[in-house]
Fold this protein.
Amino acid sequence: MPVATKATQTRPRSHFDLKSYLDDRTERVNAALDRLLPKESAKPATIHKAMRYSLFAGGKRIRPALCLAAAEACHGRIENALPLACAVECIHTYSLIHDDLPAMDNDDFRRGKPTNHKVFGEGIAVLAGDALLTQAFELAAKAKSQPRFSHKELVGEIAYASGSLQLIAGQVADLEGEGKKVSAAQLKYIHERKTSALLCCAVRLGGMSANCSSSQLKALTDFGYNVGLAFQIIDDILDVTQTSEQLGKTAGKDTSAQKATYPSIIGLEKSRRIANRLTHRAFASLKAFHGKAQALEALATYLLNRDR
Ligand code: GRG
């Protein structure tokens, strides 16, 4: 049976101009990253060049956009969310640099360009990842605390999502699962940690920067979890349905590395159906925001229907 076409999948339920929204928020995030990170010329220049090479290589900026949209849903100020949005993008970029290393996924191509270690060498790529990870905590420390959320909560949020119980746990399970038979439950465990945790963290930090209530934080957590898991399932699908040129990274990598993916375990059509279901669950959480979460809704729809 053919996989459902995009037209039959989830459509935006409101006329929200996501293109303009994403263009504007990406511009603000890029300007903030440029302002907040050491300049390329700062000594030692090699490391700052390497950090900026991957950071400004053309990522979609999904996590920062989700962070800012969550802040806006809670009537927050974009300025207060920006350092946290940048912190999450630094963690994400670090994880991609390290994931591409020969000791991990050994990839030559990322964000449409040669990977960091291909340009700067493995030693500098390891250090550029380390420096971006550390930079994220400096940015979180610079963010404005809120009556309900001190720096302890903000920094703790990032440490948890990127630490050995979440992002690293997902990567460990991913590495250990290569070439082995992985159950659907194990694969969900990997995807929740490797991908969903950081997306969820981005959304929660946006809410925290707006001093959100505990019920808003719960709604954002449910939204982030479901969108995050759907995001990785779609990533698995794109890996087998798109070309490297379309993706800006090596397509078919999961199959060649003998990695378990949703399509390889349950098939393309069922994978697509699960991603749809998760996205609808995410929509349900947005009811708590009484029409103020249009950007989050549009982003979730876009992530479900994306082709790269
Ligand atoms: C090395 C600590 C460590 C963790 C690695 C994030 C990760 C775990 C591995 C990278 C490869 C991968 C499949 C990650 C899952 C998350 C994902 C789909 C990343 C790609 O995110 P996009 O599409 O990328 O938002 P851009 O380049 O647009 O930012």
In short: Residues 200 and 224 are 4 Å apart (CA to CA). DSSP finds 15 helices and two strands in the chain. Residues 59-60, 62, 92, 95-96, 98-99, 104, 111, 167-168, 171, 194-195, 232, 235 surround geranylgeranyl diphosphate (CB under 6 Å). Residues 214-241 form the longest helix (28 residues).
